[in-house]
Task: structure prediction
Amino acid sequence: MSYLDAGEIALMRDEVATTLPETVVIQRSTGASDGMGGSTRTFAANGTASARVDPVWRLGQEREQGGRAIGDSNWVVIMAHDTDVLRGDRIVHQARTLEVVDVRTPQSWELLTRAECVRLA
Result:
């Protein structure tokens, strides 16, 4: 079994970066007082990232919107290994707004960050 040194991992990360042709905006939720003892949730830009955005169709999966079940695609957003993205964030790509439902990073060599998303708009 061979191990990679830091220089080899950096080269691999540089190679991964060449496969990220898009730019996305990552939005994070913030709470603000509504003036009546409650709060409202708003999203503001938390940063941008180079990314690859791909739809992943899964037959038979539905989600509820407006009280009714609708079929929808899932989306995968691949970004650099050190991208600041969390579950619950939103990713804006072109005219799409995606909600991050899971963030996965490899357990071994951290070369990328994979955000699994559903489309909101």
